[in-house]
Amino acid sequence: MKYTRLTKEQFEELHQEFINFLATQSITADEWEDIKKNKPQAAEQELDVFSDLVWYGVLNKVEYLEHISPQQIHLFKCKEKNMHLIALKLKHNKADLTTKDGFQWLRDNLLSDDVEFYNAQKDYSDDKHLDIFKLIQQGANITRGDLFQYFEKLIGQ
User: What InterPro entries does the annotation carry (predicted)?
Assistant: First the structure.
């Protein structure tokens, strides 16, 4: 498995898609029950293959990621050949950016010396999707990119 297996809840949400996936392999509902019961390793493999297909579909559509921690914000734009990063770092523990009050503090003090900005680009490794997946595993969230676009205009990119 390349990524990670979907959770039970995710499988439940994608129940119909999983049925369609099994159907593309000519596996009926009765055959699936038999595989789960008598060939658990084969069933595990099917779950893993389906999970990877779902993850690939999701990762293929990712344009923006955000990772917000108490003292830093990392905003990523996932382009074709590389990733553009805009990062903000608080020099002092004056606020917790994961809270509403902390975010308001950032708005009020954005251009102060207490906030450092970083701007960088990084080429993907041999596997763009795996690079994006690793960021998600580290806590990044897929977004529409509103924050990235705001800061991109602010720093004049």
Answer: DUF6495
| Per-domain residue ranges of the chain | 8-61, 64-154
- Which contacts of 91-98 are long-range, i.e. CB under 8 A and separated by 24 or more positions? 91/115, 91/116, 96/70, 96/71, 97/68, 97/69, 97/70, 97/71, 97/72, 97/73, 98/68, 98/69, 98/70
Chain centroid to CA 108? 29
Q: Which two tokens stand for residue 88?
A: 């903000």
Please give the angle made by the CA atoms of 71, 73 and 79, to the nearest 5 degrees. 160
User: Strand 115-123 relative to strand 141-143: parallel, antiparallel, unpaired?
Assistant: unpaired
In this prediction the pTM is 0.85
114 has pLDDT over 70: yes
Where would I find the beta strands (DSSP E) of 69-156? 72-78, 82-90, 115-123, 141-143
